[in-house]
Prior knowledge:
353 residues, alpha+beta, four-stranded antiparallel sheet
Amino acid sequence: MEIKLMHTRMEKICGDREMKCSSFRLPEDVMIDIFLRLEVKNLARLRCVCKSWNTLLTSKTFVEIHLNQSMRNPRPLLFRHDLDVVGSCNGVLCFCSNGSDRSLIYLWNPLIKKYITLPRPSLNPRYLGFGVNSVSGHLDDFKVVTISANADAEVYSLRSNSWKNIAYGFPRSIEINRSHINSSVFLNGSVHWCARFSCYHDNSCPWLIVSFDFAKEVFQTVMMPYDLSTDDADKYLNVFDGYLCVFATIPNNTFRSYELWVMKEYGSTESWTKLYTIEKPQRIWWPLGFTERGKIFIRGECRHGGYGLLVYNPHSDTFKCIGVHLPYYAIQVLNFVESIIEPVSQSLILSRS
Length: 353
């Protein structure tokens, strides 16, 4: 109520055409504190009030403070897989066209309603990954990597609005696991996929994680936990409490069960630690992602007999239906943070100016 009243008063002040913005001056740190209490949609409106406010709200300092604040309270978003969401990073979503042609790619900030259509890559992507160059110092240094059916790879940079080929392409000895819920995962400046070494239908081929570093623009690999490395059970990547993690189906079980493994030290195979074993007496169910408080979203059958969204509490070992009906097709859960970052290419801004 207090924040809403504050916003109403500021709009009233700024709506007075006889009052210049310069006559309503507060110390910058006070202005930042006020703006940080407002919703993103209101910040977008306040940018139009005057040049000084627009300059402050689009400054690197404010955008970074606002993003860091938002990252403390991420929220899960649910998507149907017919939308083909590639990923989420710094408040921006990446989508691609569905079907056999996946070369139409978009970056979109849904809260400020800004988007950009990327130039098409030279080859039709089979796999895509989305993230940001974490070492460049630019929060909007978004990149998209694509891998074709022939293992050729390209990377797009939003700042240059262009694609370039990756030397040597994607490792041809590795095959990314194709699954309706095995999405790419962005963490620590790299995008990750669950994969196996290509062994031509040999089920004993080792599992691993292959990643693409957006700063170095190279592919890297790290092995799965030894206990999971050679079985034929499904694996799904995710991020739990800032750690890379994997859900692994327990094979040869009378009903479907999952283990949750977490990589405690990024890049270290020896740091894999099993956190939970999740058992549910139902053949068709799978984990989707995490709530803000570390519980686990699950797609499965609820008591009413249809498929719905459940939440699993690992501490009490209980499942709870939350009243969201889900159709049979796959659902994807992404962690999303609010931001005022515009997915606009710097090269386009410079060319227009």
